[in-house]
Every structure is written in structure tokens, then in C-alpha cells.
Amino acid sequence: MIPVCVPLLDEKELEYVVDCIKTNWISSKGKYVEEFEAKFADCCGCKYGVTTTSGTTARSYRSFADYSASPHR
User: Fold this and answer.
1) 29, CA 20 to 30 Å: which among 1, 10, 16, 21?
2) So where are the chain's domains?
3) How far apart, in whole angstroms, are the C-alpha atoms of residue 68 and residue 32?
4) In this predicted structure, which of 4-8, 15-19, 44-48 has the lowest mean pLDDT?
5) Residue 30 class from Cβ within 10 Å (0-12 exposed, 13-18 middle, 19+ buried)?
6) 1 or 34, which is more confident?
7) pTM, rounded to two decimals
8) Shortest CA distance to 23 belongs to which of 39, 37, 10, 34?
9) DSSP string covering the chain, please?
């Protein structure tokens, strides 16, 4: 079998996972998600960043945002 993507997990990743479990934030919210959204927004020069559960969800959000901003609605 040819590996498609071999994960590179080190001590820091283990520390983050343990922290998530200990603080009961193993879902779609918590300090790591909020930190990622803020850093991603800053990197893109935006005021806000939004995470989604999948690329499909992200595309749906984008379509809704485009529709909401349209003067023809």
C-alpha cells in the first residue's frame, strides 16, 4: 500500500490533543478554533475568519454570502 499522506505528529500535537480532551473541547468550538480563525483572518487581511466542517460547507457559506451581498435579490 502506498501512503497518501503520512501525518507528522510530534510532542506539540499530543499536548494540544490532551488539552482538548482535558478541557472537554473535542468538537467544533474552543480556544484552538477561535485562535485559528483569528490568525487566518489576520493572515488574509480580514476582520473575521470562519471555520467550517468541510469544503462543501465553506462553498455553501460563500454562495450565501454572495447572494446576500447581491443588489438583485
Assistant:
1) 10
2) 27-73
3) 29
4) 4-8
5) middle
6) 34
7) 0.64
8) 34
9) ---S------HHHHHHHHHHHHTT--SS-SHHHHHHHHHHHHHHT-S-----SSHHHHHHHHHHHHHHH-TT-
Distance CA 44, CA 36 (A): 12
Q: With beta carbons less than 8 A apart as the criterion, state whether 49 and 38 touch.
A: yes
Q: What is the pLDDT of residue 68?
A: 66
Residue recorded with cell 477561535: 34
The single-letter code of the amino acid at 11 is E
